[in-house]
Task: structure prediction
Amino acid sequence: MDLIIGLIAIVLVAYYIVKGYSATGVLMFGGLVLLFISVLMGHSILPEGVKSTGSTYFDILEYVKYLLGNRGGGLGLMIMVLCGFSVYMTHLGANDVVVKLVSKPLKNIRSPYILMVFAYFLACLMSFAVSSATGLGVLLMATLFPVMVNVGISRGAAAAICASPISIILSPTSGDVVLSAEISKIPLGEFAFGTALPVSIFAILGIAVAHFFWQRYLDKKEGVQVERINADEIKTTAPNYYAILPLLPIIGVLIFDGKWGLPNLHIVTVMVLCFIITAAVDFLRSFNAKQTFDNLVVAYRGMADAFAGVVMLLVAAGVFAQSLSTIGFITNLIDSAQSFVGSAFFMMLVLAVITILATMATGSGNAAFYAFAELIPKLATQMGVNPAFLTIPMLQASNLGRGLSPVSGVVVAVSGMGKISPFEIVKRMSVPMLVGFICVIIGTEIFVSVAA
Result:
């Protein structure tokens, strides 16, 4: 019954969003209804560490309050700051300067889809510095997205690239990679670079090829007409050295990662520094303090728009995801996984498929992976197989599934910033993510030993 209720809720939410209803309103309403049903069924709805109000019914409201504080003050703050900085760069003309300078050396590359693939590889490298899927997606939307669009890549394809890189986890410091190494009983360095990395690279190459053909196909099918901007036609009064300003967040994240003798700074702290540097450059150019402060107001308004358009959508998606977990949807999927027996390959495939389905439904890769990870040591021992053989496909499936979920944080954030429907992002990512999943299965079979 829990599984059926969850599936009905998913179908209804998807139906009304496709029909044009506000995604924020539909997700919030659907989540609240499911949380109410969970209370009626006697389930606890608050996550560990959140104090109850004393009434399970009022705990529903308490959870919404918790998400507003958690996502609004953490992830939401990061999104607002990055969106504000992106608007600031456009207002100052810095984005135009970047496009003008980048367009000249790239003018001989006729296909925008080749440029798109290069952008995807660059974004994948960024995942070493930013291990958060949503955080990286937002950072790329604020920095790489405008450049891609202006060199001839369609908005849908560019947004899909920004949402894609963390779908194949590369960072050895990511929490799920650390857990996977412990489960597999392999030292972290050896697991991250010796066991998992070959599978990851194989999948990234497959996703890149899929992006090239799939985005080109969708653009032609939908009649998307995107013309590359002629650098000579870009009119801006901003000097050429302004081109460095939109890149400051990326430079800051790479420098202040704790590995270069400098402090390890949170991305929001880095962004505050970026605002200060940009404002100083703006002032030194004109020596007009009033104009400098007025330009900053544009950034503040961009932050406010981001709260209304993106952060509230993330809160609503979080309410819906939590409701699916509390009603027992994930638990039933785990029970279904345990009911399958057979060969090691079949078990690996079943676990990976159910993990990606759970992630698609809830939008949370970590929730699905952490829940299933508890099964791996027991199953590996029973079947006499290498735990890594079961772990790696589940690890990557939990990340790939986020690209196929219209309620995942990265899809919601990217769609909100790009002013594109979450379902359009999912459609744009569907084939690349499925190709990536197939590559993960094949890569695991080739590069990871089955025997314990």
